[in-house]
Design brief:
The chain is mostly beta strands and 133 residues long. It has one domain: OB fold (Dihydrolipoamide Acetyltransferase, E2P) (Beta Barrel). It has one helix and ten strands, in the order ββββββββαββ. The strands form two sheets. Strands 3-2-1-4-10 form a five-stranded antiparallel sheet, with no helix packed on it. The protein has a five-stranded antiparallel sheet with strand order 5-9-6-7-8. Strand 1 and strand 2 form a beta hairpin. The model has no long low-confidence stretch (mean pLDDT 93).
Length: 133
């Protein structure tokens, strides 16, 4: 499980739906949630969680996409297995792991040092821990 320490920068809500924006090293991450702990307020420091299978990778991306989170990261390590590929990414000093299929890794010719666009749906990001009391 990938984890990032971030701070809540904005909360939008309508009925039970919440759109929460986080600040991480001058980057903005967006989460969509039906439930939000009452302790989560603007300024709250949190630990965000993200599954490696919920990260999509794009190389030389152009055009518009519906992904709320489109972040730049650099490949630190790329290990091809029999069916899958584990890609370790440097995201502003933190390491994120993305798991993709071997065929996707080969067709994209993923190499250490490549800069990629990391794509994350807002519904795939979650708060695993509230760090401020």
């Amino acid at each position: 499980m990938n984890q990032l320490i971030a701070r809540v920068s904005e909360i939008l809500h309508c009925d039970t739906l919440h759109i929460v924006k986080f600040s991480y090293n001058s980057q903005t991450l967006t989460m969509m949630s039906l439930e939000l702990n009452a302790k989560v307020k603007v300024g709250t420091k949190v630990k965000l969680a993200l599954k490696p299978f919920n990260i999509a990778l794009a190389k030389e991306l152009s055009g518009d996409l519906s992904f709320s989170n489109q972040l730049n990261a650099t490949i630190k390590q790329c290990e091809n297995g029999v069916l899958l590929c584990s890609v370790m990414l440097d995201f502003f000093g933190s390491t994120l792991e993305a798991i993709t299929t071997l065929s996707a890794s080969k067709s994209m010719n993923l190499q250490v040092g490549d800069t990629l666009k990391v794509l994350i749906h807002a519904s795939d990001l979650s708060i695993s821990e509230i760090l401020d009391d």
